[in-house]
From TrEMBL:
Originating species: Paracoccus laeviglucosivorans
This protein's UniProt keywords: Signal
Keyword presence, Lipid biosynthesis: no
Pfam families given in the database record: SBP_bac_3
Protein name per the record: Amino acid ABC transporter substrate-binding protein, PAAT family
Xref: SUPFAM superfamilies: Periplasmic binding protein-like II
PANTHER family: ARGININE-BINDING EXTRACELLULAR PROTEIN ARTP, MEMBRANE-BOUND LYTIC MUREIN TRANSGLYCOSYLASE F
SMART domains the UniProt entry points to: PBPb
């Protein structure tokens, strides 16, 4: 049943590569060439289950994954779910439920995520992501600035171009350790599932992807991966 996932002879799995790790993001370690992270672990396990070779397609963000859904460069991927994306790809089972909040400077007056949703604040985020779209909806008067890549967004936050950086909580948990004099705002402005995705209108691929994710949730692959990458508190949906 897995031949449909490998029309070129290998399963091409798109992963988002950036400077932090989360349920979505992977990171290339210092001195390395290959990304590490939860979705990489899932991709490798998919190769083991299916017996097909797997090739990672490294892209800059989940937005870029969605943008290339019809470009025939990947067969399967993983991204956060929202209504805009459902119009472009078909989603299978979720393997994570997470929230998004903000990274701010330690001396910032903003304590709760909602404190930033006011006139005069500047919120930075990655263009085209579910997180930045939610930040735009949540923040009535704030200026939300969409930046092409997470690396650039972090750099611009560090140079003082924004009051906050919007990102998923797992990614923030790692960033706050590596960026001095920062903290995470309390609460969240966005809660979403992250799930397996395939090109729209391909029921055989969707069924195969569902079988794979269900198997990896059942056999402990998903939980073990989150633990391995320091995200033991990640919420894995049971359904």
């Amino acid at each position: 049943m897995y031949d449909c996932l490998a029309p070129t002879g290998e399963i091409r799995i798109a992963v988002a590569v950036g400077p932090t790790k989360s349920a979505l993001w992977t990171r290339i370690p210092d001195g390395g060439t290959d990304p590490e992270g939860v979705t990489v672990d899932l991709a490798r396990r998919i190769g083991e289950i299916t017996g097909r070779p797997v090739r990672l397609v490294q892209l800059e963000s989940s937005a870029r994954i969605i943008e290339t859904a019809n470009d025939d460069i990947w067969d399967l991927s993983f991204t956060p779910v929202d209504a805009d994306r459902r119009a472009v790809v078909d989603f299978g089972p979720a393997y994570h439920i997470g929230e998004s909040s903000y990274l701010v400077r330690a001396a910032s007056p903003y304590v709760k995520a909602g404190d930033l949703h006011r006139d005069g604040t500047v919120i930075l985020g990655v263009a085209g992501t579910a997180t930045i779209r939610s930040a735009e909806r949540a923040s009535a008067g704030a200026q939300v600035v969409a930046i092409p890549t997470l690396s650039e967004a972090i750099a611009r936050f560090q140079t003082g171009e924004g009051d906050a950086l919007a990102l998923g909580r797992l990614g923030l948990d790692e960033l706050v350790v590596t960026l001095p004099d920062t903290r995470i705002t309390e609460g969240n402005f966005h809660v979403a599932e992250t799930a397996v995705a395939v090109q729209k209108g391909r029921p055989d691929q969707l069924a195969a992807a569902k079988t794979l994710v269900d198997a990896m949730k059942t056999d402990g692959t998903v939980a073990a991966s989150f633990h391995r990458h320091g995200m033991a508190n990640a919420v894995i949906p049971t359904g």
